[in-house]
Every structure is written in C-alpha cells, then in structure tokens.
Amino acid sequence: MLLRTDPLAPDREVIRVAVETLKRGGIVAAPTETVYGLFTHAQSDEGCAKVFRAKGRPPDNPLIVHVDSVEMAESVGHIPDELVDVLRRVWPGPITVVVKSRGIVSRCVTAGLDTVAVRAPAHPVPLAIIKELEAPIAGPSANKAGRPSPTTAAHVVEDLDGEVDVIIDGGPAFFGVESTIIDVTKKPPVLLRPGPFTVEELEKYFGSIEVPPAARGLAEADVALAPGMKYRHYAPNTPLIIIHFDLKEAVKALKMRGMRVAVLCAMGQCADADAVIQMGADLYEVAKNLYKSLRDLDRLGVDVGLVPAMEEVGLGLAVMNRLRKASGHRETYGIQDLLRYVA
C-alpha cells in the first residue's frame, strides 16, 4: 500500500494506518531526514523478522531504535547522566548513540547484543508515528541489503514493492546519507559511522572522538555494533572506482581498452565520457544526490563508473565512507593501479 502525505504536516489518516500496521506486527517504509527507513514496532519479534526478511539482511546486523524524546530513549537504553543534556541539544537530528540496552526491545532488533543504537529523527512523519504508537520503532534503510539506500519513495518501491505492508511517500529525504553513529559506551566515544553530523560538530558536544579506519570505510568491523559497519553496502551493480588522479586520464585509459565509461562529477571534478552524472557542486549536494547517482549509474549500460575522491573533512568523511563501500574498496592512485581493476 502506497500512501502520500505532506512531510511537514503528516496526514492523520496516513499516520493512523501506519500505526495500526505496526501494532499488528507489520512493517512500514517512511521518510526520515536522512534516508527512507523500513520500520517495525521495536518490541515486535514478528515485525523485526519481517524487516530482515524483506531486506535480505544478515541477522547479526542490528537496527536503529527511533524515539521521540530523551525520556523514551532512557526507557530503551542506559543513558549516562552527562549525556542527557547533550542529547537534549542535538536531538531530534541525524545522530545515533550506541548505549547499553535495557532489554525492552526485541533481541532481533539488537542482533542479540547488550547494546542498542538509538536516535530521535528530525522528521515529522516518523515522529508522528512514534507519538501515536506511544512506543519506539526500529529499522534500517528501506532497500535491499547491499543496494544504495533510498532517498525517495520510488527507490523503496524499486527495491521492496510487494514486500512492505505500507510505504509512505513524504517526498525526498533532506540529507541523503544515513545518520552519524557514535559508541558512547567507550571513552572517548568512537565514531562507528560518519554522517550528516560531522566529527567537527561532534567534538563540540562530546569532546574528543576516536575515528577508527572502519569509520572511514577503510576496513570492515568484526562485529556490527550498528548498521553500516559490516558487509557490502550502498553498491550499484555497475563496477565503481574511486579516482585519486586526473579523471580525464582515467577515462582515456579505459576508452583505449574499448570500455564504456560513466563519470560521476562532484565538486567541480568531471570529464567527458560515454555518460556523465552530475552529483553536485558542494558536499551537501553530493551527499543528497549520492544514492540516486549510484542507482542512475545502473541504468546507463556502461562497463564502469568513475568517481573522484573527495577531501575527508566535514561531510566529505561520510561521502567517502559510502563511496568506499559502494565501490567494494576499488580506489586508485594512477593508471597502472586503475588497470588492475579492469584487467
């Protein structure tokens, strides 16, 4: 069932249908300020199992619990006293914290871990659902596991049509990349997944933040404490390669080998190719258009896509994290490096 609503003033009937669906163990896809989420009642084993089944998601990959307040978060996890005031300032917003679980949500949601990932979304639709349900909801992004995340309802339909009870079309997501996740059970807090809330911003509220290689997309975690840490993510079917040298040289080298090439242009870096996808002139545009661009790449019928590397500061860290995972860590610094990937 596809329902449409104004994202800023959610239709009461749409919210009612979503809540009734969740109460009976169903699953609902809905917009957030980051990407579209695939939600279940956070205490429903049946609904959680449906989410994992619809996505084809590995069972050891936990979901994020979404709440409407710090008070609801405290019912879900053990929030340290010093964190309460911080969360009141940064929520609702695109930041998820990993804390010790109180055990009230389904163990399916936490993938059997003693921790739980919690956030308050800055979007009227999920907040209205949570308020009407009077309980937290849990979910990952509303796409097939491994595919680029959905930033529109059309992307959800493309991946999950017929496998979701209700899809709410509330227009495009604002940020276009998933929430920032930090593990506050560690001292200093550890960045598990970069997102719209940048490291520079985090440090204003949380002090020093540890940024391990996995958060940059340079390694895979042994244990997934939160989404995006393990397994293939965000990937188009078309091979994607990150380029750290001149794009024109890279295109020329591949064309000489008879390959059809698409270039994903970003931050003023571009080159003529068989197809060109414009991602944006600044990092916010690039992030917002990232997953759409990866989906568009698959529609072009090319042999390979090339995307320029970006500086890993601010939102650039989140973009590069997603690109490294989407490319399967194909990252090149010269022609010979590039040719090894297409040999």
Give the gist of this structure.
α1 (12-23) crosses α5, α8 (247-255) crosses α11 (335-342) and α9 runs parallel beside α10 (316-326).
Overview of the structural elements:
The protein has 343 residues and is an alpha/beta fold. The protein has two domains: 215 residues, DHBP synthase, CATH 3.90.870.10; 103 residues, Threonylcarbamoyl-AMP synthase, C-terminal domain (Rossmann fold, 3-Layer(aba) Sandwich), CATH 3.40.50.11030. The chain is built from eleven helices and 16 strands. The strands form two sheets. Strands 1, 2, 3, 4, 5, 6, 7, 8, 9, 10 and 11 form an eleven-stranded mixed sheet that branches. Strands 14-13-15-12-16 form a five-stranded parallel sheet, with helices on both faces. A hairpin with a 4-residue loop joins strand 2 and strand 3. It is globular. The termini are far apart. The model has no long low-confidence stretch (mean pLDDT 93).
CATH class (first level) name of the largest domain: Alpha Beta
Mean pLDDT: 93
> Largest sheet at a glance?
11 strands, mixed
The overall strand count is: 16
Structural class: alpha/beta
Top keywords for this entry?
2 domains; alpha/beta; 11-stranded mixed sheet; Rossmann fold; 32% helix; 11 helices; DHBP synthase; 343 residues; 5-stranded parallel sheet; 16 strands; single chain
